[in-house]
Amino acid sequence: MSAFVPGPRLQVAATSSGPLDGLRFAVKDLIDVEGVVTGGGNPDWLATHEKAARHAPSVAALLAAGASVDGKTITDELAYSLEGVNVHYGTPVNARWPHALPGGSSSGSASAVASGEVDFSLGTDTGGSVRVPAAFCGLWGIRPTHDAVSPEGVLPFAPCFDTVGWFTRTGELLARVADVFLAGTEAADVPGHLTRCAEAFAARAASEPDDAAQLLTLAASAGASDEASVFAGDEALWLHCYQQLQDDAIRTSLGAWIDATSPRFGPAIASRFARLKGLDDSEVARCRELRATLARHIDALVGNSVIVQPTTPLALIEKDASDARIGAFYRDALTMNSIAALAGLPQVTVPLADGRDRPLALSFIGPRGSDRALIALARNLFPSIE
């Protein structure tokens, strides 16, 4: 199945010469390209919106750096998924592991890079939508510091967590794209110490103990010799806080359109949007206060040590996985991914693979504004996969 939205493949030439000369990139269909309707992975959204009047700043910056657009890519409907399935446009292929899902919601963007169709691609990441498909497809990926890359011209999902991220096949290109986006911004450094997230490794061990043991060895070889209980034994609280705030933001961004349009959603996506009706405003307000407390806790941790964790609780999700397996994955992945999301921190995903030819990925979470230093750290720790 193609990574790209139906119809002729979009081509936009570079607007200038620069550090990305000659490279081709794809754009997730949540991000505006001038003269094209941003479809959001849903035919009713496509039918009720106009062509973009201008490029999103993220797209414009890459065009000005010498790269050209080579396609808009399929996204899970309005970004509300981590699996990579779109009932309207199909499921983009996971190039290295075609029996498995590509991960979502930036599924098409990951697929396009993994298959070699483009050099790199833009995605968005709210609760893991770059991090998960990067891990599933064996790619480098980054969720940058919140608002480090302009969210203008991006279909708003949950703006309090939304970020524009990108996928590459090498750490070197991940860094080159970061230099374009983050040039002129104040850059933070990363601590010299690495600490494992105990709960994330435990979650992986519960489902895939062999993989967890190998990831533990890789983390130790990178210098993460100790671990911390990031969630302080209450993962459910972190997940609840994240989901309450995400759903409140989605209700604000998309609720009026959903009520007016009654759009056709796939069953799994429809049930997630239906949950918005049950939000309790007083509980949302409590979670806003809780988020500030949790963010301070995370900031204190990354002020002293880079957090290291498996990127995902499972190596892959098979195309024929049961609803129960997908549901458990979604819960555990959102929990692991809430660390960076709640504090607005950068997270870099590094692709590794073992002898059984299945993806293994480690992630590194650093202080706010340390995006380029975090990429450099990951590249230095794993030079063999550059």
UniProtKB/TrEMBL annotation:
Coiled coil: none annotated. It holds the Pfam family Amidase. It comes from the Bacteria. NCBIfam families: PRK08310.1. It comes from Caballeronia choica. This is Amidase. PROSITE patterns: AMIDASES. Residues 14-184 form the Amidase domain.
